[in-house]
UniProtKB/TrEMBL annotation:
<comment type="subunit">
    <text>Homodimer.</text>
</comment>
<dbReference type="Pfam" id="PF00908">
    <property type="entry name" value="dTDP_sugar_isom"/>
</dbReference>
<dbReference type="GO" id="GO:0005829">
    <property type="term" value="C:cytosol"/>
</dbReference>
<dbReference type="GO" id="GO:0019305">
    <property type="term" value="P:dTDP-rhamnose biosynthetic process"/>
</dbReference>
<feature type="active site" description="Proton acceptor">
    <location>
        <position position="61"/>
    </location>
</feature>
<dbReference type="InterPro" id="IPR000888">
    <property type="entry name" value="RmlC-like"/>
</dbReference>
<comment type="similarity">
    <text>Belongs to the dTDP-4-dehydrorhamnose 3,5-epimerase family.</text>
</comment>
<feature type="site" description="Participates in a stacking interaction with the thymidine ring of dTDP-4-oxo-6-deoxyglucose">
    <location>
        <position position="137"/>
    </location>
</feature>
<dbReference type="GO" id="GO:0000271">
    <property type="term" value="P:polysaccharide biosynthetic process"/>
</dbReference>
<protein>
    <recommendedName>
        <fullName>dTDP-4-dehydrorhamnose 3,5-epimerase</fullName>
        <ecNumber>5.1.3.13</ecNumber>
    </recommendedName>
</protein>
<keyword id="KW-0413">Isomerase</keyword>
<dbReference type="InterPro" id="IPR011051">
    <property type="entry name" value="RmlC_Cupin_sf"/>
</dbReference>
<feature type="active site" description="Proton donor">
    <location>
        <position position="131"/>
    </location>
</feature>
<comment type="function">
    <text>Catalyzes the epimerization of the C3' and C5'positions of dTDP-6-deoxy-D-xylo-4-hexulose, forming dTDP-6-deoxy-L-lyxo-4-hexulose.</text>
</comment>
<comment type="pathway">
    <text>Carbohydrate biosynthesis; dTDP-L-rhamnose biosynthesis.</text>
</comment>
<dbReference type="GO" id="GO:0008830">
    <property type="term" value="F:dTDP-4-dehydrorhamnose 3,5-epimerase activity"/>
</dbReference>
<dbReference type="InterPro" id="IPR014710">
    <property type="entry name" value="RmlC-like_jellyroll"/>
</dbReference>
Length: 180
């Protein structure tokens, strides 16, 4: 595994170890020791996946403290434009967003620490995204930022969104509160 720093502190693109032989492929997506050696001491409490059609946007999601969590995400089928937004007021990159292409082709993972919002646009039908999170789901802490309110160009006219994702507060409305 190779950890590649991004423009947002604590967010890493991970080039996963791929083993190939006549049977196919085996991909290692997590190793506690390797993560610790890269400054990330984490255990995951939940793992789940989503299946999305082309032009679906899911996001921008996070959990509020004290139930906030770090995530390790990757795609096992299809491809996504994965987006991370820094919500940490004391961060040098507060309000900055980055994107990473994750796909079954490149087999990359993305590590996202606490205090960041996460979302993605599915680039293909039946894209499968896996999420590993460091805290359990908490309905009272589950939150989000409106997908098109923080200056990121998703390069899409008519995305497919859930009712919930359409009704999130804008980035500016959210930060009138003293949360992070």
């Amino acid at each position: 595994m190779e950890f590649i720093k991004t423009d947002i502190e604590g967010v890493f693109i991970i080039e996963n170890k791929i083993f190939k032989d006549e049977r196919g492929q085996f991909i290692k997506t997590f190793n506690s020791e390797i993560f610790k050696n890269n400054g990330i001491d984490i255990s995951f409490l939940e793992s789940y996946y989503s299946i999305s059609n082309k032009d679906v946007i899911r996001g921008m999601h996070f959990q509020l403290p004290p139930e906030d969590h770090s995530k390790l995400v990757y795609v096992i089928k299809g491809s996504v434009l994965d987006v991370v937004l820094d919500l940490r007021r004391n961060s040098k990159t507060f309000g900055k967003s980055i994107f990473v292409n994750l796909s079954e082709e490149n087999k990359r993972s993305l590590y996202i620490p606490k205090g960041l919002a996460h979302g993605f646009k599915s680039l293909e039908d039946n894209t499968v995204m896996v999420y590993n999170v460091s805290t359990g789901y908490d309905n009272k802490s589950d939150y989000g930022i409106l997908w098109n309110s923080f200056g990121f160009d998703w390069k899409i006219e008519n995305p497919i969104l859930s009712k919930r994702d359409k009704e999130f507060e804008t980035f500016n409305e959210f930060f009138k509160k003293e949360i992070f």
